[in-house]
Amino acid sequence: MKFKLSCASAVLMFLCCGLTWGGALKNSFTKGETKVETKSEETAKSEERPQIENNSNSSSTQSSMKVSEQATPAQPPKAKKEIKGNPVIYRIGNKEIHRDEILADMRSLPAQLVQQTPADRLFDIMKRQKLMTYLVVEQAKKAGMDREKGYINQIEKLKERVLFENYLIKELEPKASNETTLKSKYSQYLVEFKSGKEIKISTIALSSEKEAKEVIDALGKGAPFDKLQKDKGLALSENSDRYVPVSRMPEDLKNKFKEVAKNAVTKEPIKIADAYHVIKITDMRDSKPGTFEEVKPALSQLILREEMDKLMSKLENQYKVQKFNEDGTPETVASSPAA
Known about the structure:
alpha+beta; Chitinase A, domain 3
């Protein structure tokens, strides 16, 4: 399944990386060949020269110096030719693929990839990707894959997904980004905010419980946390930049510390997935409400959830939805406890 999902993106990544990687390999081989050839030529020439040449090479040295001094300076890069209209990039039978189609594909790429890749190289990559996509799709159609039930079902699910997302964007996003609504939510947040303590943590991830206990023992004897993190920790060790309210810490995590205080370290390893973690509280401070800009994204998400609940309640009533349990019995709304 993972292969199916990642195959197309892997092809694109190969194209993106291939030019640089392949070019580097080619250059390294070329350089290696040049060095070998140069060495062999010089060796051959030295073997052919009379012995007396070694004692009288001043004229040839001066000549080579003059040549190097008169070497032509590097030429400035040529100005890029202005492109007019929308030229054809590929012609496959009666099918034409134009430049604007390649540019449209480039605009859909992640911003980081666009920023890190020169425009000319990126255009070449996407140009190749466009041709690959067209030819493979045509071949799939020729094989009748566009008429297979599995493909048709996938298309229907994709249509549902696109309609679902587009409707929510149209109906809910304006409400979640409305400045007046956001400021009203922020005022509510300030009223409901509860002061307390918040902490920032760092972790050392280790591959075995034994190693984790050895690290805890070393910390108890005064070993620097940062050094152990660098020398002993796995790649997934991290220093968090976020403060987390102590009130949100799970009780079982609180119990792993002798006390929840600055510089406190877990008294025993904590297993998360396949690694054993040693956690240190690197800082503790009094919590304070965030600024409007800081909490704005969270407020927007809160509004989205609330609006989604309202929408679902409205639609359930509109379409007279009947709900059932897994065993087929009717769902019953939990009655509120008696006063």
